[in-house]
Design goal:
By secondary structure, this protein is of the alpha/beta class. It has 9 helices and 34 strands. Among the domains are: 1-205, Leucine-rich repeat, LRR (right-handed beta-alpha superhelix) (Alpha-Beta Horseshoe); 547-656, Phosphorylase Kinase, domain 1 (2-Layer Sandwich), CATH 3.30.200.20. GO terms for molecular function: ATP binding; protein kinase activity.
Length: 660
């Protein structure tokens, strides 16, 4: 009997050894099958090959690029991210039974994801982000009981959100932003009690925001902007007391902001912009002491507070919220005055109140701010003069107050504006002259070689006298001075003749000067055409294509280049007989969460006005919450490097303040 037992254990050991040997060979063949379906232009997987002496019992695949094995030689982690791979993911991937981590991020896959991937029930983490995966998202990953992270953002997935994901109750991160999902948020998501991050923004989701989301007691970030949600903001959101980031922007939400939002004591970023909200701002929001603080490194802060309101006053409580970094309430119907106190908020960097119905004065305390870098008060009904030292804010870069009823003289404080680069005071009632100290404003002066950029705009006021003679104003666009009948000199009629003109004569003479300016620029451009052989136009042209036309061309077969900042596609629209170049920018998760699109859009708006023979013309800009694409004029005959020398390009970039 004892002999039989020993014999039994002997055969068990032989069986286990044989099974392990077979499994090693099996996993090698699985990986080679996966490689066979990939397009690997950079030969990143060159070491994925059989040794000359065969597999044997040595787990050679465990040393292959991107492959990690467990102690038994079975593949438990596969990381093929950032390898410029495309092609298709083989169905054989489901045979990697021990796989706990799969990372295919940041490649060029533009095929459907195999449905069999849902058979990887040992998965704990899967990252498919920043690809072009098509069709519906595989159903069944909810069977992976240990799944904690799922990131499929920035793809082309469509269809409905998988209901079964609600069964993956250990999920902590669910990021499906930047796709084409439709329908509503599944009710099963209420079961994700450990979820910390839910990102669904930038899709085509509809219906109402389910109040069941209020049961997600561990949630820290709820990012569902840029969809088509309607109805009211559920008060149950106020139950998620762990919430730090709430982004419901760019939907069709209506009704009032629920007072329960003020219960979110840990809230650091609140974005409700571009909805159809009405009523008043809950006064309790001013008591959210963390609002505006966003931890990165030590205390690098970011906040976005904005909403669509209906003829209500700007809440005074905001000016006492010491953690605010941004106040963004532009494009609303706000009335009343600007509360005093914003200038005392030591972390406030951006104050954006444009396109409202604000009246009264610009608070004097704004001039005492040491942190403000961006102030936009344009298109309101403000009636005061400018605070005398407002242009002396040490970090102020942009000040815009156009289309108001501002009066008095432009403060003569330009010698104290080391950072000011944009000043727009157009369409007001300013009197007096343009201050001579403008010559001391280094940023404005250095910008003078590019008159196509609107750095200084004082048009349509009541200014008079000679235009100061300095480099910047000698090359200013006359459009930025027009509407001031008393101005003379520089690009306008000489002061010695201007004094005897009638109003009609001044207008005619100004038109002649403008015409001469245009003809002069046209002549320079003509010389550029003759020298470089490339036609250049400074006319505004209506673009004949739409964002859908562009998106239809974003596919692997149209890739013409790839760099550190993104992928470049050739978008050939035969229906319109038009070809453009489209650059899809890489955006990090930090970029997305910090809402850096606002700064990027502003920069693109400036770059779109640049006209230079050595700069490819920028035609347009597409973006949503997770993706950004820049549309350029397509260069048929090569790159800029073939058109002019590197030293020349550096000089051009230096004059225009660009990085190359």
């Amino acid at each position: 009997m004892q002999f039989k037992i020993q014999l039994f254990f002997f055969y068990c050991c032989i069986g286990c050894f044989s099974f392990g040997f077979a499994e090693v060979g099996d996993e090698v063949s699985i990986l080679l099958s996966i490689k066979a379906g990939l397009i690997d232009p950079l030969d990143q997987l060159q070491d994925w090959k059989l040794p000359n002496n065969g597999v044997g019992n040595n787990p050679v695949h465990c040393n292959w690029t991107g492959v990690w094995c467990n102690s038994n030689g079975a593949v438990e982690k596969l990381d093929l991210s950032h390898m410029n791979l495309s092609g298709s993911v083989s169905d054989d991937i489901q045979r990697l039974r021990s796989l706990t981590s799969l990372n295919l991020c940041c490649n060029g896959f533009s095929s459907p994801l195999p449905k069999s991937i849902s058979n990887l029930i040992a998965l704990k983490s899967i990252d498919l982000s920043q690809n072009f995966f098509l069709d519906s998202f595989p159903v069944g990953l909810g069977k992976a009981a240990g799944l904690t992270q799922l990131n499929a953002s920035s793809n082309n997935f469509s269809g409905y959100l998988p209901e079964d994901l609600g069964n993956a109750t250990l999920l902590e991160i669910l990021d499906l932003r930047g796709n084409f999902f439709q329908g509503s948020i599944p009710g099963s998501f209420k079961n994700l009690g450990k979820l910390k991050f839910l990102g669904l923004s930038g899709n085509n989701l509809t219906g109402q925001i389910p109040p069941e989301l209020g049961q997600l007691s561990s949630l820290e970030s709820l990012v569902i902007g840029f969809n088509e949600f309607e109805g009211k903001i559920p008060p149950a959101i106020g139950n998620i007391t762990s919430l730090q980031l709430l982004d419901l922007s760019d939907n069709m939400l209506s009704g009032e902001i629920p007072a329960e939002i003020a219960q979110l004591k840990n809230l650091q970023l609140l974005n409700l912009m571009c909805n159809q909200l009405s009523g008043s701002v809950p006064p309790g929001l001013g008591g959210l002491t963390q609002l505006g603080a966003y931890a990165m490194e030590v205390t690098s802060l970011s906040s976005s507070f904005s909403t669509m309101l209906s003829l209500v006053q700007l809440p005074a409580e905001l000016s006492t919220c010491t953690s605010l970094v941004r106040v963004r309430m532009q494009n609303n119907l706000l009335s009343g005055t600007i509360p005093v106190g914003f200038g005392k908020l030591g972390k406030l960097q951006r104050l954006e109140l444009a396109n409202n119905s604000l009246t009264g004065q610009i608070p004097n305390d704004l001039a005492s701010s040491a942190s403000l870098s961006f102030i936009d008060l344009s298109q309101n009904r403000l009636q005061s003069s400018l605070p005398s030292s407002i242009l002396s804010i040490p970090n102020l870069q942009n000040f815009m107050a156009s289309n108001n009823n501002l009066v008095g003289q432009i403060p003569d404080q330009f010698q104290d504006c080391p950072s000011l680069s944009v000043l727009d005071l157009s369409s007001n009632h300013f009197t007096g002259s343009i201050p001579a100290s403008i010559a001391s404003c280094g940023k404005l002066e250095n910008f003078g070689d590019s008159p196509a950029l609107e750095m200084l705009n004082v048009s349509y006021n009541k200014l008079e006298g000679p235009i100061p003679a300095n480099g910047m104003l000698r090359t200013i666009n006359p459009d930025d001075l027009m509407g001031n009948a008393g101005l003379c000199g520089s690009v306008l009629p000489p002061c010695s003749h201007n004094s005897g003109y009638t109003s009609r004569q001044r207008t005619l003479h100004a038109r002649h000067i403008v015409a001469g300016w245009v003809i002069g620029i046209s002549s320079i451009l003509a010389v550029g055409i003759a020298f470089f052989g490339v036609p250049i136009s400074i006319q505004k042209v209506r673009i004949g294509f739409t964002s859908n036309d562009i998106l239809a061309c974003i596919k692997e077969s149209n890739v013409i280049g790839m760099g550190a900042t993104g992928i470049v596609y050739k978008a050939e629209m035969q229906r319109l007989n038009t070809t453009v170049a489209v650059k899809k920018l890489w955006r990090t998760e930090t970029d997305i969460e910090m809402g850096s699109s606002d700064d990027l859009v502003g920069e693109v708006n400036v770059l779109g006005r640049l006209r230079h023979r050595n700069i490819v013309r920028l035609l347009g800009f597409l973006h949503n919450d997770t993706n950004a694409m820049i549309v350029y004029e397509y260069m048929q005959n090569g790159s800029l490097g073939e058109g002019f020398a590197w030293q020349t390009s550096r000089e051009v970039a230096g004059r225009l303040g660009l990085a190359i």
